[in-house]
Amino acid sequence: MTDGKEDLLLEVDRLLAATAPGTNWKYNPKPIIMTKCMSDVQPEPITWLWPGRIAQGKVTLIAGDPGLGKSMLTVAMAAHVSRGTPWPVDRSRCPQGDTIMASVEDDPGDTIRPRLDADGADVSRVHVLIMVSELDRDGNPRERSFNLAKDISGLDDLLRQTPECRLVTIDPVSAYLGGTDSHNNADIRALLAPLAAMASRHKVAVVAVTHLNKAQQANALYRASGSLAFVAAARAAYSVTKDPDDPDRRLILPLKNNLGDDKTGFAYRIIEADNGAPVLQWEDELVEMTLEDIANAVTERKPRPVETAKAWLNAQLHDGPVLVTELQERAEDEGHAWRTVERAKKELNVRSIKTRFDGKREWRLPEASADVLYLRKVANEDRHEDRQTPPYNKVAVFDESGGHGKTKTATHDEDRQNIIGGVLADFDAAMTWLAPADRLGTTLPKGLKQAAMAACDGLTVTPGQFLAELDPADHPEIITDPEQARAYAVALDGRLA
User: Fold this and answer.
1) Cα torsion at 186, 190, 195, 199 (round to 10°)?
2) From the CB of residue 186, how many other CB atoms can be counted at a distance below 10 Å?
3) Which of 204, 258, 302, 468 has its Cβ near the most Cβ atoms within 10 Å?
4) Angle between helices 324-333 and 305-317 (to 10 degrees)
5) Ordered domains of the chain (ranges, CATH)
6) Are 49 and 256 in contact (CB under 8 A)?
7) Nearest to 266 by CA among 241, 247, 303, 235
8) Contact 320, 423 (CB under 8 A)
9) b vs e for 19-41, b when ≥16 Cβ sit within 10 Å of the residue's Cβ?
10) pTM for this prediction
11) CA distance 477 to 42
């Protein structure tokens, strides 16, 4: 090394030592570890944008699932800063100043501006990042999107030109990584370190928004989309979630707060402002519920897979028997494991019956059996003095194994109660339940369905209830005498009302 270069390096050492007294600056061709004596560090109080919640000169993270109002939250913050109005709930002081917003998901004209107006913002103090203008290799101007990997120095210059800026929002931060792997801790830390340093230099609060991933960890710290380094780099992090007791109520709860209150949060609802834009309506009280409380409540209320399968199977069989093969196809299409559906079948006491000549099985709900038997009796029995146990109500059924089983007896009163009680709400449902009996040779008299529907037209009583109350001996009269059929239906309607 020449003497001239050595002198230059020594002069650099001298200048560095003069501008940063107490710092161990010394030229060395090898990397050195620099230290600073704490006696040379002057203590400084934390400057708050939102006292105890969001500090100036620091990075704060807001995480939550889509559709919960995170972007509207950044707009509300910008509105408060623009006018210096007290923060909601605690009414703490908000320093007035400018906000720079980076928002890739919301259009400035039809979304951000109407929301700012709805929040009463001084829009002259809110600035939205649009594009970065630069020269390409040939010296021609071009525009590209802002990203944190390339444009921290440009944002630093913008903050110098906006000396009263108090807040920078980045929504979502994942859209501004400039190709950096969001799941690589080292890369994210290297990307966020200059951002944090810039925030510190300008005493500006940086609020970054991120989504939650679909992982099922109870600890929401690990659900912030991408690397855990996002949460680690932030001095405070908040989660936006739904109140498990009120889906329209949103909760902002602390994930971490290294500088202030990490015990309480806030609640708000999204309402429509006079200009038609959505706006936050804050509640007056602090929220002391924790994210752990939310996770436990959701876990306790989340139905077991078999409970979900039971509800699904009950809905599938509500209108009558369904082929097992068809149920298997529906279950696969709708994401229900067949083994779970079989457990649901067992808990619901669903019957598997072989009623087809091709040997295929059907499943039907247990309450269907009595209704089928009675409808067969309605269709076939002659006048009989003993309405409790006529011989025609004994019908052969198949057992679970497919073999021919014993006969079952269903009394008139019990079956009628099932039908009138709502198991068969209309004639079509009655016909559905009757279908297995049809295949065994039992049918309703021709024209009876149409006569019953005409007789019950405009009444509360349904054709199914009407037929259930009829004596089969009256069927011919119902078919051939519409006026008499109507009279029967009106009388029954009054009796069942």
Assistant:
1) 90
2) 10
3) 204
4) 130
5) 3-40 (no CATH), 48-300 (3.40.50.300), 305-496 (no CATH)
6) no
7) 241
8) no
9) eeeeeebeeeeeeeeeeeeeeee
10) 0.56
11) 105
